[in-house]
Amino acid sequence: MTFAAAVTDRTLSLHTRLCVGLDPRLDAYRDADHLRQHTLDVLEATAPHAACVKPQLAFYEALGLDGLRILEEVCAAARTLGLPVLLDGKRGDIGSTAAAYAQGWLTGPHAGSALTVNPFLGFETLTPFLDAARREGGAIFVLVKTSNPGQADLQGGGVSERVAAEVTRLNDQEDSRYGSVGAVVGATHPQDLALYRRLMPRALLLLPGLGAQGATAGELAAAFHPDGTGALASASRGVQYAQGLDVHASIGAARAFQAELNGAFA
Ligand SMILES: O=C(O)c1cc(=O)[nH]c(=O)n1[C@@H]1O[C@H](COP(=O)(O)O)[C@@H](O)[C@H]1O
């Protein structure tokens, strides 16, 4: 099953539209072992409420080799739990380098996973990522309109709409309902969700910003298709650090986001 199909399947069978982000900060822990154990505990505890899990590579890279080992363990544990993995790396570079990123994050042990990609170097640079995702049953999530306040500096003036049109052009080359090309649209822009839903009917939308960045689930209904599929709202700090390192609080937060998203859609 492809990444898009697996996520959609979980949304329909488990009634969840939540993507749980795992962005462990070393300063929250005694040491890397403590970070590893808590991150794995949060993953396992919140998995029943999640459509997918999204580790942000920066937090693991920050720990050097130890961090990369922890990341691989987190991804392996997610696969064992049946959770699709969306790797948040926001990669993007000239084609030959993009091909190396794609090899590292969309093939081998990461075959079938998804990767966030940055289209700033031009649409042609998406090709190596897309080829790997299509070959391996994975996906790419292209930055269309990011959640941060400064996004308008470079993403305004019709740029986001141009990226959205390219996402649709690429998905229209495929047969399945949701193609291999997803799109990142910040949950912090609820007024724009209907527009991007319309511009990219066959893209899974990743909506980051729930919780810590102030977005609320009740405002996201326009991102979904009428059957309640097609989007994933993500929360990282709001789940992993819902109340310090209390894993029960993480479960509570994930359950609450899940219910709010389901309520918003209904
Ligand atoms: O691609 C992302 O996930 C992403 C896109 C975006 O527009 N904004 C954004 O905050 N993110 C990621 O979402 C995570 C932040 O989630 P919170 O801790 O819930 O705010 C970080 O890993 C960000 O890199």
Automatic annotation (TrEMBL):
All copies of domain Orotidine 5'-phosphate decarboxylase, residue ranges: 17-251
PROSITE patterns: OMPDECASE (PS00156)
Keywords on record: Decarboxylase, Lyase, Pyrimidine biosynthesis
SUPFAM superfamilies listed in its UniProt record: Ribulose-phoshate binding barrel
Signal peptide location: none
One GO BP annotation of this record: 'de novo' pyrimidine nucleobase biosynthetic process
GO molecular function: orotidine-5'-phosphate decarboxylase activity
Active site: K90 (proton donor)
Pathway this chain belongs to: Pyrimidine metabolism; UMP biosynthesis via de novo pathway; UMP from orotate: step 2/2
Reaction catalyzed: orotidine 5'-phosphate + H(+) = UMP + CO2
Enzyme Commission code(s) on record: 4.1.1.23
UniProt cross-references to InterPro entries, sorted A to Z: Aldolase_TIM (IPR013785), OMPdecase_AS (IPR018089), OMPdecase_type-2 (IPR011995), OMPdeCOase_dom (IPR001754), RibuloseP-bd_barrel (IPR011060)
Pfam family, one: OMPdecase
UniProt xrefs under PANTHER family: OROTIDINE 5'-PHOSPHATE DECARBOXYLASE
Family stated for the protein in its record: Belongs to the OMP decarboxylase family. Type 2 subfamily.
Protein name (record): Orotidine 5'-phosphate decarboxylase
Gene source species: Deinococcus ficus
Gene expressing this chain: pyrF
